[in-house]
Input
Amino acid sequence: MSDRPRETRWAERLLVDFAIPLVGGGTVHVGAPLGNRGLARLEAAVAAGLDGTEAGQRLSQLRAAIMREHLLRCEVPTLLSDPGAVRLLAAVHDLLFLLHPQIQGPLFPGRAARLSAHVRRLCAEAALPAEVSGAEDLERLLARHTLLAGLWGLSRDDTRVTFWAGRREFYGMQPPRRLLLWGRLRRVRQERWRVICHLQLLGQEAGRAAFLALLSASPLSDLLAPKRLDPPLDLVAHAALLRCRELRRAIRSEYLRLGLVEVGGALGLSLLRLLGRAAAPPALPAEDVHTVLGFVCELVLCVLLGPLPPPPLGSDGALRDLLGLVCALCLHWPAVALPADVRADRALSAEVCLQVEAMARLVGPDRLDELIGLCSRALRMEPAAVPLP
Amino acid sequence: MQRMAMLEHVALNQTQFRLPGVAPDARGVLVGRQGAVLLPSFDRLVAFFRLLSQELLLDDLLPALKILQVRSRLGAFEHVVLLPAGSSHLLDRCARAAALCGAQLFTGSDRHFVKYRDRRSPLGYDVPTLLTEPADLVFYGETFTQGYSRERELSFGRLLLDLELRPRPGGVMAELRELQQGETVVLTVRQGLGPKVLGYLYRHRVRALAALLLPVPAPPGERLLVAPPPPSFLVRAEDLPPRMLRLLCGLPGVVVFSLVLDQVAVQLGYRHLIRLSACPSAFQKDRFYLFTAGSGCQVLSSPPPLLPLESLLETDLPPAMVPASAVRPVAAAGLKVPLRLVHTGVRRRVKAALVPWARAGWLKQLVYALPPTLLGEYQAAPLEDGIFVVSPRGLDVLPIGALLQEAAPSVFVPVGMALSPRVDPEVLVQHLGGTSGRYLLVLPGAEASDSPRVLALAHEDLDALGRRMLAPMEVVPRPRLAEVPRPRVDREVLLVNEPLGVAALAPLRGMPRGTQDPQGPQGSPAGEGA
Output
């Protein structure tokens, strides 16, 4: 290792301590913020062949494994082939430094705001075009996602040590040994808990802005995590991605893997918000609204027409509203809700009609009428007089 | 009110809480069996239900919903709405409505309620210590802990009935413009005007039903506090033309209502503060509710016995009734009419086919072209006469063999033919001995004059066409493609902060100053001194 340049050794350690565990699981070590100088060092190391090192190859393999979960055949991603990915990696590292206890301090009060602005600038520089125009764009989008996929599950163990004279809390750090000595005499008590890092970031103003910027630089990471508590899922912002056939299929498969019961609440709330926005001026682009509605209808129909029984509605109003909206769209706006091949297949459309009508009965006629009214206002189209055959 | 240490943030995978009766839901959010909305005044209570009814259907909540008037130790009266906490999705929506009307949402069970999650603590809050003072309900907020004693319970149904209607912007005319053609409206017409108005509607061929509402007299020896409404006709009209609606709206003695639910009507030009269509179960099915501006809600103890208009109008009866003469059935002679297959030329949907063995090769070729859904649906059975293929949804793409259509459920006859005499299908099935667990094929006899042959085929003799026609194949095992890796095993990703010196923050000095101020990295109180 000693014959390699110093920059490469430094960058290799960054990959081993930070990037590889973030992508493949393990303990993610967050040290000093990289800043502009760290980014320049990382870029220099990538140019000097960081991808060819053992750590670089391991990172590429882990990223390729995630990509192949969504796209059957794809090239192994490297940092050299996508300069934006290097910036994104640096942005994630510096974003996580916002959770470091040392970011707070009386001597330098504006440091979190500065770091947030730096992260946002990196994300803006790494932004991808909104439309996916070819296989290369698709792979780059997925490759970006591989760097952020682990962010949703990233957690931190905190410790509170209470002793006779007071208490101290340690965030993502072990308490020093001296604080735990003479436990019985000093009445030392330790409490441990675990927090979700992205929720902690979203709880800060600086962290929220930077985290949202990060999601806009990797929109697929935003779309593939519908179960999160915060920020709310906004499907219409990603309508351009949903128009890409391969991505649409990949996202649908992921949602089906998670289960409609799990994602239905988030999707239902997202659709209600979308239709509410579409119904009020300024109007959203009709093409985007139709794309999102079509995607959700396909997803629900995959479940309804599948071998498993339909999801129980229970007391989850959002899931009920989601199914109600799909029923309303399939019965009264089939051109929006159903793909052309389903509409052309008489047997299949009859089956769809059967399932949708059964689901509509579960949703209840009153709520269904309200949802039809909402769809009508949002789509600016009267419900079709003749429902499905 | 007691000031206490701040609430504790719930951590990921935390399973033990100081607050009794709470647990994390599927998303990890701390939820009790109930949600409780603390409202400082009655107008906020109404505002909360108004917002909530816009947001969701209240029917799911009503069976376990309670509205309590409570009193704090300082003697201030407040209101608490207790909701069943089905899921955190539901409570999220309630929290939004509560925040909009200046209320707070808590979650818990029975007696202790802690503040529901917010952006600062996305998984919710736990309490550092429980309040031990005697109180019916205890609320733990971020800045206070408050015990309340329960004063009385308010009924949600009563609240709906007691609220006054509010005029709509634009009044009746605006609502008339929104009213769709053919929408049902309800009219109340004073008894004196009744015959004229009913006659008017009848002459103009309005589809309407009407009933006479009479006030219920006070029980003997008692006196009513409120004067009962005067006797009037209640008319339910379905396709009242707009010009007639405008005329009736302006006619004294006539009040026009729009139907909000089957048994609830609200005066045209007004609206209820709470969206009534969001809470149908609050209204009893066997009653009828008329919400009138200025005079509250008139509840009819039973749905009005509506009759066609002509029944309520004066008619001329014939001078005398002609009695009907009684007849008795006569025993029928033993008539035995044989069933025949006759050509009718009427082609119905092909549901089965009998493919002769000479055409079996064609059927094999066709199997390659059939889509998988049809291969699964089509059932086949080899018979002496040929291969019988049947599908309950129809054989639209099988153009070979003798095509069969259904003369009765599970009874097949050749296409274009029917059984004569044309008896009812049920009678036919009974005559042929029933079709339970079998199909019946009625085929022409060898000669035209011969009576038809009836073949019975048990359902268990049928098999899916795809399975029946498949030839055996050799199965060769193959190893998994190495290029496509197995799905990842989800591994825990844990963040560890490295201890740093002051010099480690040097990169921050070169960065431009941001515009936002942080609130702190941990979202929980800083530790006290060591």
